[in-house]
Amino acid sequence: MRKNIVAGNWKMNNGLIQTETLISELKQQTKTSNAEVMIAPTFTNLWHAFQSTRQDDIEVVAQNMHFAENGAYTGEVSASMLKSIGIQTVILGHSERRAYFNETDESLAQKVDAALEHDMRIVFCFGEELSDRKSGNEEAVVESQIKKALFHLDASAYKNIVLAYEPVWAIGTGETASPEQAQDMHAFIRKTLESKYGHTIADDMTILYGGSVKPGNAKEIFSKPDVDGGLIGGAALKAEDFYAIVNAF
Ligand code: PEP
Hints:
Blueprint: E1 5-9, H1 16-27, E2 36-40, H2 46-52, E3 59-60, H3 79-84, E4 89-92, H4 95-100, H5 105-117, E5 121-126, H6 130-134, H7 138-150, E6 161-165, H8 179-197, H9 199-204, E7 207-210, H10 215-222, E8 229-232, H11 239-246
Parallel strand pairs: 1-2, 1-8, 2-3, 4-5, 5-6, 6-7, 7-8
The protein binds phosphoenolpyruvate.
């Protein structure tokens, strides 16, 4: 069943005190939409955020994880470590991870497998660079990212997957894909899934848009039939703005 989701990616922002403050501000907001709400604080604040939101309609999710179970991977965190503190969902493949930490479609496929082995839900991010769009290659790039990281999976895995289309040129830049550009790409993503897994899986897939979504543009973007929610960066750091986006459905 397709769901509406609004997920806030806090990136490398907010220490413990700011995390506490933002969570208490988020709790004061009123949710009027049916969208599921996720927040992704940094690793150091996941446990605290998880504990503080246990009674609330907010899921705390991780921004990343390693594919190995444990071992000599200094600085990394595994799926079982996330699960051990109650985290059920992980964002994988964010463009900043791909650009600054050399994550590839191949290493992401390993992370996807590890998360699924632990029965975690994945918010899987992908999207083209500006140069790809300028050269008219955006669909080919997105199709290749999806195929390389996800097409080895059985159909049954897709109940644990949420897709997030995030054109790199729109992330943190203030530039947003137009609602039509988002709709066209989301429809293309659904068609790509359908070609391999059939209509039901494609139709049931939740596909989020990410890239400078704000209170002022969320409603129009979310009104598109193939856009099921958003992955929000900058605007997720202000409780009022974030809930204005959550309530844009
Ligand atoms: C993101 O980091 O996933 C993102 C969409 O950021 P922003 O909303 O700031 O563009």
